[in-house]
Amino acid sequence: MELYELKPYIIESCDYLGIDIKEISSDILLIQIPDNLKDELNGINNTKVSFVKTSDPNITYLTFESFFTQKIAQLVADRNTGIGTGTKLLKLDAPTNYIKAQLPSCNIQLLDISQENTDYLFIWFKTTVRGNLVEEYLKGFKYNLKEDKVETYNEDINFLLEDIKDELLLDVNEAHLDTVLREMLSLAKEDAEIFIEKKKIENKEILDKEIKRINDYYDMLYYENQLAESSKGVTPKEELELLQREREGLISQQIHKYEYKSHDTTIEPIAILMLRQTVETATVHAVNNYGQISLHINAENTISLECALTNDTNGPFTITSDDMIVQVDNAFNCSECNRLLDKSKESSCKVCDQKICNDCEEISSLSRASLCHDHTQRCQSCIEVVASDEFHLCVNCNQFYCLKCNESSLCSLCKSLQPIQGVTPQVNQIINLLPNDFSAKKYESSEKGNRVNLLGKGTLFKSFLIVFDKNTNTIIEKQKYGLFNKKK
Ligand SMILES: [Zn+2]
Ligand SMILES: [Zn+2]
Ligand SMILES: [Zn+2]
Ligand SMILES: [Zn+2]
């Protein structure tokens, strides 16, 4: 029997048949037989096989004569029904279901569904190369007849053969097919050359070791013979020549053993599939209460959504008000404008901690903190935006001003009262608004932002203090003084 390398043969054949293999160790494989092949293999589902003898009763020792090997070979042969032609429709169900699952809060619609046909030629070659061992492998090649180019064959055979409808394709150009087949064969030849080159490198190491072993052995004999008396009736010189010839003979045997003879390589097509593949394409329109997106999908390509913020592909996702796909966990609702936005646009109010977007937030001129609408106030003295908790009461005029305008308990208006030189129209307006019992001999005033403070004085003591608001044109604070400036 020829010495085949059994392990690669089993691995490639199982791959061709769609049988899953897990390598447990370099000699032991776990073979997982799909249900459709179970009956063919005596009802086995999972089985461990080994290429060396083991004492484990659960592991089948595999040789070329084993039932399993023979059956696999037969199944491969059965699959090779020669030339097959058929059509296959790749539908949009998988990508559509994926999008629906990944965008659970969205309404998904498929628009502009269309179909595109491409003819492919698949061909599987069995390549046999002969060196010290005879090695076989199966390899598939794929040709796109529409674009006239070789494509990488990386199909899952079960998936490829699934749902093919046998159909004769009569409109195929035979001469063209012939050229393509020849091109594929030359590709398979190139591939075999690469395989042989790889094997040669592997073998070179083994061969070098063998030669070294032979040389070491004969070097030792040579040395011993130089010392010893001849005992076989040949002269020492003749004996050394004999050893040298033996050595050369053994080395050339080894070289011959590890040699690959390219003319011994055979490449046979074992299966050809001419496939007209129809691929559905469409535009997916996904919409929720906030935004919408459109995506082009193609039944042949797997689609994967990705978070616009993190590029993470783990869903679920949602669509933001600015029409971006983000992970649900990376989206927030602005409590002001109610838009759904990604977290890079999120702030929270310093006072109430509500989530607000960058467009809605106000920034305190004092602390630079983010503020929601409810907790934003304008200081009527400096007219700046500050947080509602950044105000301080002036004990004199009883008004709240920001911490900049009222650092201590006396506001900057109260601190800067100055005697008035003449009665301006504004002072006149304020005086006209005074109640009848508010009178004074002289006045002091200060003005900042929207506020005017007016202090009325008698001969000796203060008479009254009022705060006038320019926005509303009203007096918002009235205080009367008694003797010795005592507030009434
Ligand atoms: Zn907002
Ligand atoms: Zn707030
Ligand atoms: Zn202020
Ligand atoms: Zn004040």
TrEMBL record:
This is B box-type domain-containing protein. It comes from Caldalkalibacillus horti. The lineage of its organism: Bacteria, Bacillati, Bacillota, Bacilli, Bacillales.
